[in-house]
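Regression test case RT-17, inverse folding.

Input:
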């Protein structure tokens, strides 16, 4: 089975944990978009490992591929490799990197800083990792790719094009940059592959591939709340172009959602909770960015938005995360519709100017006021929690494969053994 694991909200849904649990059933795990703006936290026993660019499957010793759709910041990648090696993981044996993946240069971070500064009141609130400018150069056909790091003369020429077309006003020590990139190449190139052949070999052999999404659907450059989005296709749409796999070979799409909502960075968030309850959820859920440490904005579950996300991705199964965070609440709200200028909206529109004006219509559930932390059998959940979950399942008309009741692998209710 080839499975896509996708964030159904604005990222940080807990994809790292799900992928860690599922990956043992797969022969290859593939990242297909994004870069080190992602932060997947995986807890294994006593250890907490945060991955930014490397697929989470690596922790289980599963072959892992960084696809062509990913943008790579070499120093971060090398740090990640080092940290994993220090944890006893044989990264160099299992990690492969597409020769066509683009490189994030120091200039990209600088360009992003300036661009955010200029936006004043309309900042995106990016992670500051240079992801947007790296993709801009990719689509501007002046980007530097992994494969370029092995050819000094061509790399030099490409850097000339880059600096003559863009960044004319930036002070860059070009020779130094060239040497630095060639040095990174010495570490990265031995791991590089022609990823289309690599991945399609697994497909031909009938192996199972897990595609690991980063960020979430509402941050997708095409389907998210543009311009408050990331610069890649973080929905299931990104798999084919970011990994080199035909849509014909994708079997299931597992949508990951928390049982509430969070968002980092700017942009509309209709179900955002204000005041002390937001702080309570943030504290209990540990809602601080894995990459930037920024406090995440917290709000109620938004089923109206999730329905859209399910449509865009063709979500065929759900993983519901962080149930235990809601344990102490007296009541739990869920948005089922929006009102815009007094009228009920027919369907969700990811237009930030409309979303800033909508008023969610909530359905309120009684809290269960009991600990669900660590529950691993659905029978042991309080009846109110089951009601809440059943409502979500029925509303979205999608099966639930997994419910998470705590950060570690064991704190999980598995409803479908794939
Ligand atoms: P960028 O991806 O750094 O360009 O940031 C664009 C938007 O996406 C900002 O709102 C970020 O906070 C958000 N974003 C990027 N990566 C993540 C993530 O992994 N989790 C949650 N939000 C993210």
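Golden output:
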């Amino acid at each position: 089975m080839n499975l896509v694991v996708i964030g159904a909200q604005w990222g940080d849904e807990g994809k790292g944990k799900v992928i860690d649990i599922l990956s043992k059933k797969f022969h290859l795990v593939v990242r297909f978009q994004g870069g080190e703006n992602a932060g997947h936290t995986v807890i294994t026993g006593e250890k907490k490992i945060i991955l930014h660019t490397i697929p989470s499957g690596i922790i289980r010793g599963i072959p892992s591929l960084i696809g062509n759709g990913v943008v790579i910041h070499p120093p971060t990648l090398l740090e990640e490799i080092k940290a994993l090696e220090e944890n006893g993981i044989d990264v160099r044996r299992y990690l492969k990197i597409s020769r066509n993946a683009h490189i994030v240069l120091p200039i990209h971070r600088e360009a992003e800083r300036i661009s955010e500064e200029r936006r004043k009141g309309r900042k995106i609130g990016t992670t500051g990792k240079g992801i947007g400018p790296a993709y801009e150069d990719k689509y501007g056909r002046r980007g530097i790719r992994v494969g370029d790091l092995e050819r000094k003369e061509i790399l030099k020429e490409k850097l000339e094009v880059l600096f003559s077309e863009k960044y004319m006003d930036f002070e860059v020590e070009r020779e130094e940059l060239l040497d630095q990139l060639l040095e990174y190449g010495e570490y990265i190139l031995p791991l590089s592959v022609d990823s289309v052949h690599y991945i399609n070999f697994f497909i031909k052999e009938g192996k199972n591939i897990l595609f690991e999404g980063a960020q979430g659907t509402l941050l997708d450059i095409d389907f998210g709340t543009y311009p408050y989005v990331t610069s890649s296709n973080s929905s299931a749409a990104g798999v084919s172009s970011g990994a080199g796999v035909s849509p014909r070979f994708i079997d299931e799409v597992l949508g990951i959602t928390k049982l509430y909502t969070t968002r980092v960075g700017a942009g509309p968030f209709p179900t955002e909770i204000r005041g002390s309850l937001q702080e309570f959820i943030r504290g209990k859920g540990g809602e601080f960015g894995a990459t930037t440490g920024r406090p995440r904005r917290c709000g109620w579950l938004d089923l109206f938005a999730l329905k859209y996300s399910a449509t865009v991705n063709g979500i065929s199964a759900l993983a519901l995360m962080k149930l235990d965070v809601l344990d102490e609440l007296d009541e739990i709200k869920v948005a089922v519709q929006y009102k815009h200028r007094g009228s009920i909206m027919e369907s969700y529109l990811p237009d930030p100017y409309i979303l800033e004006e909508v008023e969610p219509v909530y359905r309120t559930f009684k809290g269960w006021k009991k600990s669900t932390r660590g529950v691993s059998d659905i029978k042991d959940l309080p009846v109110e929690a089951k009601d809440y979950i059943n409502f979500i399942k029925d509303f979205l008309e999608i099966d639930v494969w997994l419910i998470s009741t705590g950060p570690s692998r064991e704190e999980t209710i598995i409803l479908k053994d794939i």
